[in-house]
Amino acid sequence: IFSYIRQVVFIFCIFFRYIKLFRLTKKQGELRLTLLSKIKPGRKVLIKKMTAEGKLVQRLMDLGLYPSLEVKIVRNAPLEDPMQIEIDGCNLSLRHEEADHVEIC
Question: Distance of CA 73 to CAs 3, 28, 51, 76, Å?
């Protein structure tokens, strides 16, 4: 029963984030999409869509990345790979190859 409740809460969270994204898109009109790997540290962005397939998209979603989520880029490693991002107070490290499959606005 707890897993069912957790799934329902997860679905509601995604639903409300999509509503937030829709309102943002409606206010700003046409948004330009760019890749997560191209963003400089210190900026907060909104994930618009993920272009990955197969195991990579499953891994990204297991890490907590999904459309309409707000992400903060904390820093890049000295040689530019990996990058550190913050999602809801949790820090994650992503390779730029993985971040190339996440489109943001």
Answer: 31, 22, 19, 8
